[in-house]
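Subject: sequence -> structure tokens, single chain

Hey, anyone have a minute? Need the predicted structure for the following. Not urgent.
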Amino acid sequence: MRNQMKNKTEKTNPLIWFIFAIIIPIIVAGTLAIIIFSIAGFDTLGFMKSIGNKTPVISSIISSDEDKTNKKEELNTEGIIDKENENEMIQQLQEENEKLQARVKELEKENLKIEKTQESLENKEDKKEPENTEVQQFVGSFKDMEPNQAAQIIKNMNENTAISILKEMPNKVRGGILEAMDAKTAASLTQKLLHEN
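Reply:
Had a minute. Here:
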């Protein structure tokens, strides 16, 4: 087992030695050379690009000045086209915005109509509540009466008032009162009660 471990360490040692003894010093020396020549005023990057452009594999990676100017021209023409498209898009957005604002105004008008209708309905309900409380009081009075007496009183009332009172009565009491009335009056009131509901 120890022999296998020694073999593995011996195999990796030459590779590590190669990296630390040769590769890293070359990178450090190259970097120092570029920095020193750049400080001295030489165009080291331009020199490296010109050599790289002459080398077949590296020339495909490094872009030349002509490629840069061609790209700039393409970008400029695209920029002009983009500006035209941008202006069209801005104009379309403004038109859509105007349509939306008009629609918002219409909706606000509709909302005001709905609010007014709701207020008028609430006012009508408020007005009906006192009537309903009065009707409830009369219903309570008629519940306590004999059906014959209640029938005579309701028979002499306005039909709308009679229907309002009968509508609020329990079925048993209403049935007794309608039974005590003559058939024609009872039938007429029953029909109107059905149409009310």
